[in-house]
User: Fold this.
Amino acid sequence: MSEYIEHDKNNVTVGLVEKKSYTFAEPPNEMIMESGSRLGPVTIAYETCGQLNDDKSNAILICHALSGDSHVAGYYSEDDPKPGWWDIMVGPGKGIDTDKYFIVCSNILGSCIGSTGPCTYNPKTVEPYGLDFPVVTVGDMVKAQKALLDHFGIKKILSVIGGSIGGMQVLEWCVSYPEMVVSAIPLATTTRHSALAIAFNEVARQAIMADPNWNNGDYYSGAEPDLGLAVARMIGHITYLSDESMRIKFGRQLQDKSDISYNFDADFQVESYLRYQGAKFVQRFDANSFLYITKAADYYDLEKRHGNGSAVEAFSKTRAKFLVVSFTSDWLYPTYQSRTMVQAMKKNGLDVSFCEIEAEWGHDAFLLPSERLTALVKGFLERVYNENRN
Amino acid sequence: MKTEIKQMRFELQIIASWIEPGSKVLDLGCGEGELLYFLKKNKQVDGTGIERVESKVARCIEKGVPVLQGDINEEIQDYPDDTFDYVILSQTLQQVYEPAMLIQSQLRIGKKGIVSFPNFSCWNVRLQLLATGYAPITKQLPYEWYDTPNIRVITLKDFRKFSKEVGFKIIKEVAINTQNHDRSGGVIKFLPTLFATYGIFLIGKYGS
Assistant:
């Protein structure tokens, strides 16, 4: 996702932010994972923007997707080259207005950007966990976020917002802690992965596991499976785009040459783009985290976990007001999947709004500047904020 | 409230006056949500709309009106029986493929329905056809035959006949004549089939 991050056109920013962390579940009171295993201590990296009001009624939780982190908006330092990953949406007067709301974004459990994951040290062995790290589920990620909000003393969240795997966390919040969630904005997401989504994730995982450097996840003391992770990221990128966006962005244009080379260099711009994205990704992401998080996304099944296979039953537990948004060219989480969840919400008489935004940029559209999306989020939040105060 | 109500189409002003405060309302083809917004602000109505066009859906959400983007014929299916106190179909019936089915669904999910449509038996429509021989074009139905979304022409009498054939009850009906881009108007009591530009009907199920 990071290739889109740019400075705000109008220089509107929340300013300097700080990466903080919270540690809990110290042994012997470890966190019990959905799989039954125990994990502790657990550290969650997080960022906050805006001010929590006196009655703690203006908190918004933002859930990031696969490769995101807690750095949602603003800058870490004056000369920071890039703001947080959703700076276009989060800031003063923006879609998620930091003048009005208190925003929390935390790095998901199992990730590698400050929160406990396979690359952090296992206190028992004093080595990185590697594959000894327990399998993480979306439910576990949400449980860890809940611990963080409990730490802040926040009893009600005005809105939980997120796209893609972040959207799954949003849905999980609504069914797991219905009394806490006033409203929710699941973007470009699904209640469960299609075979297509699982298939792409599996190919990506195979790319990592086929890299000899992967070494069954035990690579932290030597060469890392960079090639495998880069290929995994390349596959991911294809699924985030669309036929249309790739045609517009690359077509069949060649990279720095006038004719094809008749060898296996990156002749086409699209090849060069994917190689670049892959190479850049390995500098900031851990291959094992990629395996764990994609598996969590594939395992996620809201219907099965909360509704005996029925989405209607699963959503019967929720109380939140929903704004569901999908994008026309998203083939990873197509609109029909959003419509299915909207249907289940309607059958439960829930307050739900749904909009399918016309966008050519595929799944990634939710991270790109969109006046439409910004206006939707802003209007919806204003409504739920006012209704919650009455 | 008075000035706000005047900003709405006259026909919507009448519909708004029929809605009980605090009721639950679904507006099929809600456009930019002006009726629902008014009802929410002035009558504490719990309202939702269904609208097909993305830009109109966005306008609704921006102003705080819950709305679903979709086709009314499909979206109406998912609601449990009697979910709403009123289900409104304002100036859309003339564009619907299966009006009987839609009205039955309307009365399945709503305790009452409100239906409004341009009256095709208004004198100017009759006169145009008689005098010019061309398909009538009016302020209410401003399209050529080849680019009109209005695939049906309905008169007040047609709708009454239709209610008997489909089997629903007309609880109340008002015929109106509108001016000033439909923002103002009056109720027509004398020969409504000839002088009304629109008909508005409050409908319900038999036996309730």
